[in-house]
Each structure stands twice: as C-alpha cells, then as structure tokens.
Amino acid sequence: MRDGRPQSQGRGQCYITRVTRPDAIVVQPAGRVAGCIRVPGDKSISHRYALVAALADGPSSIEGYAPGADCHATLQALLHLGVPISRDERGALTVHGRGLGGLSAAAGPIDACNSGTTLRLLAGMLAAHPFTSVLTGDDSLRRRPMRRIITPLSRMGARIRASDGDRPPLTIAGAGLSAIEHAPDVPSAQVKSSVLLAGLHADGRTRVIEPAPTRNHSELALAAFGASVDCHDRVVSIVGGTRLHARRLDVPGDLSSAAFWAVAAAALPGSDVTCLEVGLNPTRTAILDVLARAGAAVERTIERVEAGEPRGSIRVRAGDHRPLTIGAVEVPAVIDELPALAALATFGGALNVSGASELRVKESDRIACLAQGLRALGADIEERPDGFHISGRRRLSGGTADAVGDHRLAMAFAIAALGADRPSVILGASSVDISYPGFFEVLSSLAR
Ligand code: S3P
To answer: CA 284 from chain center: how many Å?
Structure first.
C-alpha cells in the first residue's frame, strides 16, 4: 500500500478528534502503540526520481511517488517547465523526459510552496538552461537561506539574483556551465544535489567535497539513470554531458515518516510496531541506531535493493529510556528526526542536542518552535543557540502546542502528546500533509 493507510485495524476507539477551531486536532493519551503499517513513499527519493526523469530521454515510470504536498510541488514545477506527467489508475507516474538541457521556460514564477528540496534542486537544473526562471515559495521557504546554492551555481556560470541577496524568490539566468570543485561549509544534501544537477550539464567533472556525509539519493538516482557519478569518501563527482536513459523505478517508504511510529513504539511500554517496505539506505538509518542506544528493541531486515536503494522492514518495541546525547558529528544523519527524538525524550529519558544550528533554518526555526511547543505540553526543555536539552523526568501534563505550519513539529507534538496526563491540542495539524497525508488516521489506528 502506498497511501499511508495502516494494514492493521484500529480498535474502534478514536484517539484523535478534529476540533471546531480550524486546523486543530485533539490527541488523547495512549497506553501503547501496536500494528503493522506501510508509510508513504520517501520524499527525498521521490523528488529526485521525478527531477532526473525529466532530464532523461523518453518516458520513465515511478511507482510509490510520495503523496505529500512537497513532492506535488516538484511535479507542478516540472509541468510548468514543459515536462508532461501522467498518473495511471494505480497511482504510478509517467514522467516524459525532455532530455538533457531540454526543459522549456515557464510562463511565470515557479512556486516550490514549502519545499526547500524542490527549490534548491531545481535551481541547479535551471542554472544550466539558457532562459530566465523565477523560483519562489511560501512564507516559510521565502525565509530560508539560498546563498549556499547561489555561490556555487554562480561560480559555474549562472547569474542569480535573490531577495536580500540570500532569500527566495531567486531569479536565475541560466547559461552554459563550467565544472567546479565545491566544498560547502554546511553538510547539506540539498546543496550537494543542486551542484550535481548543474554539473550534469556542465563541461568537465564537477566535484563536491562534503564536510560530513549526507543522504546520497541524488548520487544513486543519477547513476540509476546512467549519469557518470563517482563517490569516494566525502568527494562526490559527476561528469557533465552524459545523456540519461528512461527507467522504471519504485520509491520505498519514507524512513523519516516511519520514525514517528518507531519513536512512539520506543516510548510507550508494551508497544510493538512494524513498518514494511521502508527505505533502509545507510545514509538515513542513523535514527534506528539512536533508538537502540536509547533502549528500544530495534530490528531491521533488508529485503531487496533497487536502483541502489535498500528497502525492507523495521520492527520497534519499547525498552528502557536511556539518556541520549547527539552532537555535531551525528546531527546531519538524523537532522529530520530530531523533532521525533525530542518527543521521545519527554517519555522519561533525556536528550542533549548540540551542533544543530541548521535546525533554525528548516521549515521553521526548529529549535525555538520545538521548545515552545513541547514546553506548552509540559516538557522541561532548555533552548540553546545550536541545540536543546530535554530532561524527561517530568511526565507531560498536556496542553496546546502550535506546529507553526511545520509538518515534522506537528507529528512530533502528536507523539509527545500520547504520553501526557490529559488530551492535548495540536494547532496547525494539517501541515502533516506536507510529507504524510493520513498521519492522524494512522495514529488513531495504532494507539491502544
Ligand atoms: C533533504 C535534505 C535535508 C533535509 C530535508 C530533505 C533532501 O536538508 O533536512 O528535509 O531531500 O535533500 P539539507 O540538505 O539542507 O540539510
């Protein structure tokens, strides 16, 4: 199943209630979570398969494409750039690739909505197309830093203007690009991917030297479509000009979505949750190691590898609540799971996160807004410039937490609320649709 619906049946009791206030949900405390589910397709892989397929020669078929709003924004952007995309009755996409350098100018600004991945990766592709494009997004995306892609793409030969020099909208005048060697200051898969997608069109070999390893889905996707990509330690390179061939691909389930159920299972005594057909790429599985370190019983089984992406099942059962420390070295590998791990710490462990100032420039300021929301639910959390400390000694009272339109905060607050003394209200609950439509229905079916 790819619609995020659980396989197991709920017990008939409703653990969530939509309240009359627009966009709010009440989450009831739960004793445990149990069941066997599939999660929606991986968001990062979906973006990449669609974008790279658009540059291939001929029609590619993509099954299990992520159903959330972020990945929809990528498809809309490609449609505006002259890429025909159709969906069959089973939901599989066909992306009719236009060939390398084959995108057409959009009639107006391209709206990446809330999706940083859409904007940054597309910027790399558009830098190589000989027309002017404007890339913009919602209020959250228009606050996010873009200097990190403007610098390397300008060095390659594109002309890029931004609001305040750093924020979207970006106006990109594409050009014939030259290969560069780029060493970003921050570990970022989006920056690496933006430069690699530009490098795919450039003269010569483009190299990115990463300060720390980040998810490698772009490298794998580009190689799967026939690009000449090479990875050694932290150096990733691509030779420009190779034509890409169309492919049939299947997106595995999103481990960052499964992480919320894994955390709930680790948190509530007696819990036992299995997620099937989930992506188990080693650049994404650090969350499972961290949960085991926190005391949970974690099993993972790789069942097959497609286009370089391992997939299989995970099973998580509750155990002890050991204190956790996550520092700068580990942060890039769990960057999207830190809100979920913060929720876990409210169940009795403790969590100290440092070296994570990147969290301040995600869909929200994920340090300040996480602290504010968890505190509103009764948590003992101290905000720091580059992280936070949570002492899980105090059981949550329950309360009203505002997700400020950030999907991962909405889901983290909902999981934390399962352990509270009384029902909690999550404001901005519909933001889960960014990555996980149906999240609250699944919550309702797993909670006991
Ligand atoms: C993503 C990379 C990460 C991550 C984001 C998705 C991607 O961002 O936080 O949710 O798909 O490449 P950075 O690469 O900017 O850290």
So the answer is: 10
